Amino acid sequence: MPPNAQAGAQSISDSLIAAASAAADAGQSPTKLQEDSTGVLFECDVETTDGGLVKDITVMKKAEKRRLKLVWRNIIAFGYLHLAALYGAYLMVTSAKWQTCILAYFLYVISGLGITAGAHRLWAHRSYKAKWPLRVILVIFNTIAFQDAAYHWARDHRVHHKYSETDADPHNATRGFFFSHVAGCCARSTRR
């Protein structure tokens, strides 16, 4: 039971079921249930009368001033990757053959699949199961994306969801846009 739930109080899911049966018995429109809904994806996850809104989480969301340890391997890799991308864009406009442009687009698409279908949906969220051949293909596609190992990507993404917008979040947006998109990948907090 969540810390701000009241013992013996009717849960949101129970109240919605009661509202739905009352609406069906009274012949009311089904939009009554939508009006009573809190908008929580799974109502049973928030078993409080207020939908969990009383709990003050602003204290948890304040980023502490911390010293960051730079991860030079990532900094050098990101720097090289972006310089190579600029050079590649220049070559694509000035001297690349059309076959090279199609190959570049193909690699772009499969690397996106490696991140979205592989590291994100399959390994981080476990939203589906895949047999061994598909897993191998998705790991290869993920490697082409150059976003670290699928194992590390999924681990960091799970931590990000578990501790979203707190100091434990590796991509804490309360530290600013640069930290959440770049510095979170190029630095580690000294207090972990």
Q: Are there runs of 5+ residues with pLDDT below 50, and where? A: 36-47
Number of strands: 2
User: How many structural domains can be distinguished in the coordinates?
Assistant: 2
Q: Gyration radius, to the nearest Å?
A: 23 Å
What would you call the structural class?
Answer: mainly alpha
Number of helices: 7
Sum up the overall morphology in one term: extended
The average pLDDT score comes to 75
Q: What level of helicity do the residues show?
A: 55-70%
Tell me the fraction of residues in β-strands, as a range: under 5%
The helix/strand series, from N terminus to C terminus, equals: HHEHHHHHE
How would you write the strand order of the largest sheet? 1-2
- The end-to-end span amounts to 28 Å
In this structure, how is the largest beta sheet organized?
A: 2 strands, antiparallel
List its salient traits.
single chain; 192 residues; two-stranded antiparallel ribbon; 56% helix
Short description:
The chain has 192 residues and is mainly alpha-helical. The protein is built from seven helices and two strands, in the order H-H-E-H-H-H-H-H-E. It has helices at residues 12-26, 31-36, 72-94, 98-124, 132-145, 150-162, 177-186, and strands spanning 68-70, 187-189.
Written description of the protein model:
- The protein is mostly helical and 192 residues long.
- It folds into two domains: 1-55, no CATH class; 68-189, no CATH class.
- The protein is built from seven helices and two strands; from the N terminus they run ααβαααααβ.
- The protein has helices at 12-26, 31-36, 72-94, 98-124, 132-145, 150-162, 177-186, and strands at residues 68-70, 187-189.
- The chain has a two-stranded antiparallel ribbon with strand order 1-2.
- Helix 4 (98-124) crosses helix 6 (150-162).
- The longest helix is centred in the middle third of the chain and has 27 residues, at 98-124.
- It is extended and about 75 Å long.
